[in-house]
Design a protein that fits this description.
Elements: E1 3-13, H1 17-28, E2 37-38, E3 45-54, H2 58-66, E4 73-78, E5 86-92, E6 96-102, E7 108-109, H3 112-121, H4 125-136, H5 138-144
Antiparallel strand pairs: 1-3, 1-4, 2-3, 4-5, 5-6, 6-7
Length: 163
C-alpha cells in the first residue's frame, strides 16, 4: 500500500536545514536533499518543500521527526488511500502541533462524533464558533499563511490542489 503527500518546511534557521534533511532521511530510509530558498516572511530563514510517496502513516512519522526543532514552521500532508484517511499536520512554534483528518480535496474532515461533542459542550453560539475554529486549525492556518509564499512572490500550491 502506497500513499503520497507533501512536506512544506515554511521556516527553518539556516543552521537547522541540514538537520531537517537528516530527519526526513531517517523516515524515508534514503538521503534527502531539499532545495532551500529564502523565506520573505522571515528573511533570516529558509523554506523548502518535497513531495513524497510511502506507506500510510508516513506523514505522522515526518511530523514527529520535524517537531524535534521547536523553531520550525511546517506542514505535512498525506493523501487518503484505500482503508486510510488522509492527514494534515501543521506546526508553529507558539502553538505546537495540530493534526486533523484530511479529505481527498485537501480539506479538513471532522467526524460526526467530534461535531456532536463540540455542539454538546458549547455554551452558546460564540463558544461553538470558537470550538469549530480550534478543531479546524484556524489559528495555525492564520499564522502559517504569510509563510506559504515562495521567494518569487508566487503562492505555494494550496494543499487542496496538491496533485
Amino acid at each position: 500500500m502506497v500513499t503520497r503527500g507533501v512536506v512544506y518546511v515554511h521556516s527553518s534557521p539556516l543552521a537547522v536545514c541540514p538537520h531537517v534533511e537528516w530527519a526526513l532521511a531517517r523516515v524515508f530510509g534514503a538521503p534527502v536533499h531539499l532545495q532551500w530558498t529564502s523565506q520573505p516572511a522571515e528573511p533570516s530563514a529558509r523554506r523548502a518543500e518535497r513531495s513524497w510517496g510511502g506507506r500510510p502513516g508516513t506523514a505522522a512519522q515526518l511530523a514527529a521527526a520535524l517537531r524535534q526543532w521547536p523553531m520550525l514552521r511546517f506542514e505535512v500532508t498525506e493523501d487518503p488511500s484505500p482503508g486510510y484517511d488522509g492527514e494534515r499536520f501543521m506546526f508553529v512554534p507558539a502553538r505546537g502541533l495540530f493534526r486533523a483528518g484530511m479529505g481527498a480535496a485537501g480539506d479538513i474532515q471532522l467526524g460526526e462524533d467530534r461535531l456532536r461533542a463540540l455542539m454538546a459542550e458549547a455554551r452558546g453560539p460564540e463558544a461553538l464558533a470558537h470550538a469549530l475554529h480550534t478543531a479546524l486549525g484556524t489559528a495555525w492556518d492564520e499564522e502559517l499563511e504569510p509563510y506559504r509564499y515562495a521567494a518569487d512572490g508566487e503562492p505555494v500550491p494550496l494543499l487542496t490542489q496538491v496533485g
